[in-house]
Amino acid sequence: MNFAHDIDKKVFRTISEITTTNQQKAYIIGGFVRDLVLGRPSKDVDIVVEGSGIKLADQVAKSLNPNIKVSYFKSYGTAMFKYKNIEYEFVGARKESYNRDSRNPIVESGTIQDDQLRRDFTINALAINLNKDAFGEITDPFDGFLDIEKGLIRTPQDPQVTFSDDPLRMLRAIRFATQLNFRIDDDAYAAISKNVERLKIITQERINVELNKILLAPKPSIGFKILYDTGILAYIFPELSDLQGVEIKNEMAHKDNFFHSLRVLDNLAEMSDDLWLRWSALLHDVGKARTKRFLDGHGWTFHGHEFVGARMVPGIFKRLKLPLNQKMKYVQKLVGLHMRPIILVEDVVTDTAVRRFLFDAGDEVEDLMTLCEADITSKNHEKVQKYLNNYKIVRQKLKTVEEKDRIRNFQPPITGEMIIMAYELSPSKVIGDIKKAIKNAILDGEMSNDFDEAWDFMLEFAQNQGLKLKKTKKEVIEALSQVKPEDDR
Ligand code: ATP
Ligand code: MG
C-alpha cells in the first residue's frame, strides 16, 4: 500500500529531504495516518524520527520558513510548529516502561518498531515512511489497517498491561469507539472492566478531555453505554449511573432514566454541537434518582426533580473539575427550567405563563426549547409529531408575546435608585417590595412594560405602604439624567 500521492506536500517533502540526507528514519504516525485511511480530516500530524525530534523540527522549520516559531516540550523530548494551519509535532522514536504510580513512562530512545509498540491501539500505530527510497509506504506491524476495515479497537500488546500502564487509554478506547462507531475488541473490553480503579492515577482534567470528546461525537450514547457497562461510570460519575434501572410496583413501571437521558442526548446531538447544551441534556433528569416516589393510586412520580437536579449541578461540576463559571450556571438553568415548556404545552397557555417563562429563561429560551424537543423520546411516531407540533405552537406564542412585551432580558422600568430618590429612603426592604410588585404586575399583564404606567403603579403601591412622595416624576428623571461632573473624572 502506498500513500505517496496523499502526502505529496511541501512539509512532508522537506522532512523527506532532510532525514534522507541525515540518514535518519522518519515516519508520519498515529492519528493522521488512521484518519487518512478513514477519509477523515485531521488538524495535527505526528512525525516520529530515529534520533532527536527537537533537532529535526528545527531543521524542517528553518528550511520551510525561517520565521516559523517552534515550540519545545523538552521534558517530553518533543517539538511542534504550525504551518498552514496544521500542527506538526516531532518526537524521537522511543521505548517505554512504566511504574505503577504514574501514567508517565520511563523513556529511552528506540527504533520505529519500539515506537509503534508503545502506541495505544493498532489503528493508531500505523506509520507512513517519509524516507526517499520508500516514500509513502505504510508500515503496519499489528494489522491496524485490517482493524480499520473491521471497525475494531484493539491494543498491540496484552490489553491488561496496556490499560494498567496508562489507564487513560481505557477512556481513549471508549472515545474512539464513540467517534468512529467502532467496536472494542473482547479482550480489551474485559481488561477495561478489570482496570476501572486504575483510573485513580489519572487527573480529572484528562478524564474531562475524553468525556467532552465523547459528548461532542455524533452519537454520544455509544460512549456512555460502554462507560456504564464497564463500570467506569459508577466510578467517575455515580449520579448518572444511579439513574439506571426500572422498578415495578402494582404492575406499574417507570422508564429507565439513564437510557432515557442518553436518548435525549443523542436527539440533541442531532440538533446542536454546543458542548454545554449537550451537558444539559445529559444532566436534565439527574435529580430523578433522589425524587422517585410511588404514590398509591397514582404511580411513579419524580416531583420536583428539575429543582433537585439543578441544585446538584454545582456539586457535580466541582467534583468533576468542570468550569464553575457561566457554563455551570447555564447548565444549572437549563436543568432547572426544562419542565416549563412542557407545562406551557399542557395548559391552555395564558400570556402570563408565557411572560413568566420568558422572564425566567432570558437568553436561554431557544436552547430550552431545543432541549425540550430533544426530550421527546416516545417510540410512537404520531405522538412525537403531535408533541413537536405543540412546541411549534409554543415557540410561536413566545415570539408573539416577546415582540409585544419585550420580556426577555427585561429590566423593570423603575429602578431601586428611582424609588430611593422619589421617597427619600435609605436602603430598606420596602424598596425591593416595590420593585417586585412592579415586576409581577408587568408579568401578570396588569400593565405593560412602560415607565409611565409603572410610575403610577408605584405611587399607588407606596401610598398603601404609608410612604410619602418627596419628589415629582420630572424631578426624579432630571436628577438621574444629570451628568455629575465628579463621576466623569
Ligand atoms: P485525536 O487527535 O483525534 O485525538 P489521535 O489518535 O491523533 O486522535 P493524539 O492524542 O493526538 O490522538 O495522539 C497521537 C498519537 O499518539 C495516537 O494516535 C497514538 O498513536 C499515540 N498516543 C496518544 N496517546 C497515547 C497513550 N495514552 N498511549 C499510547 N499511545 C498514545
Ligand atoms: Mg492527533
Which strand-content bin applies to the residues? 5-15%
As a percent range, the share of helical residues equals 40-55%
* CATH architecture classification of the domain at 10-150: 2-Layer Sandwich
Outline the biggest β-sheet: 7 strands, mixed
Class of the domain at 10-150, according to the CATH hierarchy?
A: Alpha Beta
Report the radius of gyration as a whole number of Å: 30 Å
Question: By CATH's scheme, which homologous superfamily of the domain at 10-150 applies?
Answer: Beta Polymerase, domain 2
Strand order of the largest sheet: 3-4-5-2-1-8-9
The end-to-end distance, rounded to whole angstroms, is: 73 Å
Number of strand elements: 15
Structural class: alpha+beta
Number of helices: 26
Uncertain spans, ≥5 residues at pLDDT below 50?
A: none
Net shape: elongated
Mean pLDDT: 93
What is the topology?
Elements: H1 10-22, E1 26-29, H2 31-38, E2 44-49, H3 53-64, E3 71-73, E4 78-83, E5 86-92, E6 94-97, E7 106-109, H4 112-117, E8 127-129, E9 138-139, H5 144-150, E10 152-153, H6 159-165, H7 168-180, E11 183-184, H8 186-194, H9 204-215, H10 221-230, H11 232-236, H12 238-241, E12 248-249, E13 252-253, H13 257-271, H14 275-283, H15 288-291, E14 293-295, E15 299-301, H16 305-319, H17 326-337, H18 340-346, H19 351-361, H20 365-374, H21 381-405, H22 416-423, H23 429-443, H24 451-464, H25 473-481, H26 485-488
Parallel strand pairs: 2-5, 10-11
Antiparallel strand pairs: 1-2, 1-8, 3-4, 4-5, 6-7, 8-9, 12-13, 14-15
The chain binds adenosine-5'-triphosphate and magnesium ion.
The site of adenosine-5'-triphosphate has 10 residues, from strand 2 and helix 7.
